[in-house]
Amino acid sequence: MQLANRLVAATAAALLLAGGLTGCSMLGDGGSGSSSGAGSDASAGNASFDKNTKPLVKGTFDSPAAQGAKVDIAIMGLKVKGKLATLTVQYVPHVPGAEPNDINAYELNGERGLDPALMDPVNLKRYVVVKDSGNKELQTDEIFTHMTNDQTSSAYYIFASPPESVKAIDVQLGAWPTFRDIPVER
C-alpha cells in the first residue's frame, strides 16, 4: 500500500509541475495572471475573422469556359497567423449563357486545377497549399464550390507561412497572369 501512495503522490506532483511550467491555471482563477505578447488575445479566446473589404489588386482575364467568357480576380489579402498564411481571393465569373450556380473555378480555368502557389522572390521558394492529416488540401473546393454568374464568390487557400524576412510575395492562380508583390500581413 505504501508503494501505491508514493505513485499517487509522484503523479500528482508531476501534474502540478507540468501545469505550472505550461502556465496553466489549475485553480480556476480565470487567468488573472498578467500576460503580454501578440498571442495573448488569441489565447484569451477573442475570436475574429479576416475582414478585407478592398482588394489589394484585381484584374479581368479571359476564360476558356465559353466563347467570350471572362473572370474578374481580386486578391483580398495574404494574412499570416502562426505557421500558416491564408490567401483570400474573390472571383466574379462573366460566362455568356451560363446557368445560375453552374460555374466553378475549375471550369473557369479550362477544366484544369488552379494549383494556387505563392512564389517567394527572397528565398527562391514556391509554396503550395498545405494538406491536412487526411491528405485534403486546405482550400476552397475548385469543383464543388459553385459560383453565380456576375456575382462575387470568395475562395481561401492556406499555405505554410513565409519567413518574417518576406514582406511581399507573388501569387499564381491557374493559367492567369501572376499577381506580383502581394503584401504579407502579419
Task: Give a verbal description of the structure.
The protein is an alpha+beta fold and 186 residues long. The protein folds into 2 domains: 2-43, no CATH class; 57-185, Immunoglobulin-like (Sandwich). It contains 3 helices and 8 strands. The chain has helices at residues 2-21, 40-43, 105-108; strands at 57-62, 70-81, 84-94, 117-120, 125-128, 153-160, 168-172, 179-185. Strands 1, 2, 3, 4, 5, 6, 7 and 8 form an 8-stranded mixed β-sheet that branches. A hairpin with a 6-residue loop joins strand 7 and strand 8 (179-185). The chain is globular and about 45 Å long. The termini are far apart. The relative contact order is 0.17.
Topology readout:
Elements: H1 2-21, H2 40-43, E1 57-62, E2 70-81, E3 84-94, H3 105-108, E4 117-120, E5 125-128, E6 153-160, E7 168-172, E8 179-185
Parallel strand pairs: 2-8
Antiparallel strand pairs: 1-2, 2-3, 3-6, 4-5, 4-7, 7-8
Protein name: DUF4352 domain-containing protein
Signal peptide: 1-27
Keywords: Signal
